Amino acid sequence: SMQCFPGLVLALSSLLGALALLQLSLHLRVPSRYGKHEERLVRPRGRLPARCAWFLQELPSFLVPALLLALRSPPRLEPLGCRLLCCLFCWHYFYRTFIYPFFTRGRPFPLQLLFFGMLFCIYNGFLQGYYLIYCAEYPNDWCTDIRFTSGLLLFLLGMGINIHSDLLLRQLRKPGEVTYKIPQGGLFTYVSGANYFGEIVEWFGFAIATWSLPAFAFAFFTLCCIGPRAYHHHRYYLKTFTDYPKSRKALIPFVF
Fold first, then answer.
1. What is the pLDDT of residue 256?
2. 252 within some domain
3. Global pTM?
4. pLDDT score, position 41
5. Torsion over CA of 94, 95, 97 and 103, rounded to 10 degrees?
6. Alpha-carbon distance 4 to 8, whole Å?
7. Average pLDDT score over residue span 16-22
8. For residue range 67-83, what is the model confidence (pLDDT) as tens digits?
9. Going by DSSP bridges, is the β-strand pair 47-48/109-110 parallel, antiparallel, or unpaired?
10. Largest CA-CA distance found in the chain, in angstroms, rounded
11. 160, 198 Cβ separation under 8 angstroms
């Protein structure tokens, strides 16, 4: 049976933090080249339909923790806080794997980015799952701890914003359309990257609820990865649409 190695958790979490800083340095000035930031002059090579790509990319984040849980002997059922935290992570990726891809209307996705996305989801799925299933120690009353309750509320709030914003983005396009329009409604009234803002809030909520290094490293990675993308989306909208609301911020309402 697999055991907990704290050194492994520390090493993998530290590497995740380093990868976050690398992402930030690579994409602060130049956005990742997919979706609205594709280079139009480059001939599309090696792409998958968006639905298939998103499904394949997100699947490991759901399967790897589920597999780790299945392999644990005896099964880890206690404490309740640990079970709930593992369920939160898997719940997000169940939505991302089995629901979100079948409604998305995005452009075909580059295979190279899909490959790196899958690698990350395997890596992070293992780190979060391994820590929660084999290493995490929580008191029996963790569910009433202020860190758990406040983190859970933030997680649910962020997930709600994320799902609602995805729905608003989908409604901008009719089936078969690939043109970009100005997002309206919800938190898009205040920020250009409402869906990204929701996901960042969600994972920082998860980090507070778990109060663990792996979860904080992942929340930091999320911020460094999709924060710059929200900024580049904002610049794209301002450049493309002359009637784009000037009061909107890039990512954080009223601040940035």
1. 44
2. no
3. 0.91
4. 42
5. 160
6. 8
7. 96
8. 988 888 766 656 677 77
9. antiparallel
10. 61
11. yes
176 with 139: CB under 8 angstroms?
A: no
Question: Residue written as tokens 């090493």?
Answer: 11
192 located within any domain: yes
Interhelix angle 111-130/6-27, rounded to 10 degrees, is 150
State the pLDDT confidence band at 63, using cuts at 50, 70 and 90: very high
Contact 149, 88 (CB under 8 A): no
| Interval 5-32 mean pLDDT | 91
Range of the domain at 199: 15-38+45-240
Q: Residue for token digits 């924060």?
A: 227
For 163-201, the pLDDT digits (tens) are 999 999 888 877 767 678 889 899 999 999 999 999 999
CA 64 – CA 230 distance, rounded (Å): 28
Q: Which residues pair with 191 in a beta bridge?
A: 249
What pLDDT, on a 0 to 100 scale, did the predictor assign at position 36? Answer: 60
Total tally of structural domains belonging to the chain: 1
Contact 182, 176 (CB under 8 A): no
254 within a domain of the structure (yes/no): no
User: Does residue 245 lie within any of the structural domains?
Assistant: no
First to last CA, the chain: 48
**Residues facing 36 on adjacent strands:** none
Question: How many H-runs (helices) and E-runs (strands) does the chain carry?
Answer: 7, 2
Name the DSSP letter for residue 131.
I
Q: What is the DSSP string of 153-209?
A: HHHHHHHHHHHHHHHHHHTTS-TT--------SGGGGTBTTHHHHHHHHHHHHHHHH
The better pLDDT of the pair 65, 41 is held by: 65
Select from 201, 255, 256 the least CA-distant residue to 234: 256
d(CA 79, CA 102): 35
